[in-house]
Each structure stands twice: as C-alpha cells, then as structure tokens.
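pasting for ref
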Amino acid sequence: MPHLRTTAALILLATVTVTGAARGAEIIDRVLAVVDGVTITLSDASAAMRLALEPAPGLAAGTTIPAVRDALVERQLILAEVDRYAPPAPAEADVERAFDAVRARVGAAQMDATLVQTGGNEARLRRYLRDTLRMELYMAQRFGTVQPADADIADYFRSHPAEFGARTLSESRDAIVAALTRERRDSLVREWIASLRRRANISILPG
C-alpha cells in the first residue's frame, strides 16, 4: 500500500506522468480519487472502462469515467478487507481463464493497445484479475446463500404474476429462491460497502 498522503499534497499531484512500459511513451495522467492513501488514476479508470472490467461483468451503454471511478473506489474498499482476512488465493488456471476472457471480449489488438496507452501490461492486468477472483471468493464466504422462508417465496410469487405466467408456485420455486437470494445478498453488500465508506478516508479529486 502507498504511504498515506494529505489531500492537499495529492491535489498538487493531481496531474502525473506515467511511463508506458511497452514503448517508453509518456502518458499524462491525473489522480481521480484517493482511498486510504491508495490513488485511483484516470488511466486506471480508462483501462477498466475500455477492457470492460468495472462494473463487472461489463459496462452498460453510456457508462462514464466518474461511474467507473466510483466502482474502483468501492473495489479498493473491498480489497482492503480481503487483504485483512486473506482468503485462499485463486488457482492460476482461473486467473488465466479470466485473462483469456478479457482478450476474447475486447480483442487482442484492443487489449494490447489499451495496456500501452494506459501505462499497463499483461502482468498488471493479471494481478487485477487475480484480485477480482480473491474478492469473489471473499464475498462468497462472507455473504453465502441464505434460504428464503416459505412465506417470502409465496409472497414473491403472488406479487409478480406477470413474471411467472401460468406456472404454479411449485414450478416457479427455484427461480423465486434465486431472485430472493440475489436481492438479499445485494442488500447486504450495499449495507456493508456503505459501512466501509463511512470508516474510510476517501478523497474525490476535482476535475
């Protein structure tokens, strides 16, 4: 982790120069946010957006740099918790599959160009993807599935008639359980991230 710096000092460093490893080209960059001393830069957000890394599993049409910046802020908050509890490391085969998925999604040429233009490289992308897998393992452990009550399942079925058509409650049960589990998990995650934000020192840089 970088050493904690003051917000005033970081504002002075809001524009930085990064050297592109592959071609030695200078890339003008700037700091978008600081999360407990860890900087999130424009090149970080640009790479995440162009490679469709955040928000996972891909970007919606019209996603902006501020939206990706906010996703990266949340990512850093979660990673800090992951580092505290150190879940098992993902298998390297899983990292390679994630890497291949990025390359297939955006194309090898676009991926290589994006890494050069944002000061990254394949090793850094693999670290990013490895951290994503670590986060997923941690979240699965922390927010494991919770079986909804029968009353909640029946209430969901009654309140979503168009969703199930002519199917019976029994025929719809698995889909309802999945939907309620997802809703409950998303709610718990939102509450948890909000608590992480309250405890963290987050600075959003102007511009």
